[in-house]
Amino acid sequence: MEINSSHMALQLRTTAWMYSRNSSVEASSAVTAFPAMTCCSAPPWQPGNTALSTRLLDHPEIGSICSGGRYDNLAEYYTDKQLPGVGISIGLTRLFYVLGEQGYLNDNMNKAPADVLILPMTDDMGAAIETATALRTSGIRTQLYGEQKKFKHKIGYADKLGIPFVIFLGEDEINAGVVAVKDMESGEQVKVSLDEAVNLIRAGLAKKNEGKVICDKSI
Fold it and tell me: DSSP strand E in the chain: where?
């Protein structure tokens, strides 16, 4: 069965093996769809089992990307009881490798390990730790830079990792009860309260992450 899609052009082939006491039957179908995976651990060739395996036709070297099935005795290695079960696994590493190779991933999405990097400008880390805790509680991924390095090295660290926002905390900011927030893309820097910083960073992240992780492409 061949199915055409205007969104994805990744050819898949799903093969099913149905095992009986005396024989096995193989059935397969080629489709255009969305991929993913590895394979199950229980032996599919035992009687009473049904196993599924999905492969990318354009990338046979990757092997199975989505496999699983029904097994009469899936837990035989862990218990004396005969316990049937259903299992499936998806190989996200293989999936996203192919999506990246074929240009389906949105490169504009924020892929940095954090949304904001806090750079303490004083020896006392107390205020920086409190700020990091508040940001994390608000759902903002936060890194706290703790090394005693020069300012150029600190800001270069954020730039190298692609972290979109940096917060500076010096004596002036701590005494005034504010934080200095810098948008690394635009270079704009403002001093605001912590609550305002949370809203500012959230709005900036929403704008930077517009669109989908996986791009729609016409065939």
Answer: 10-19, 24-33, 50-56, 64-71, 85-90, 116-120, 142-144, 165-169, 179-183, 189-192
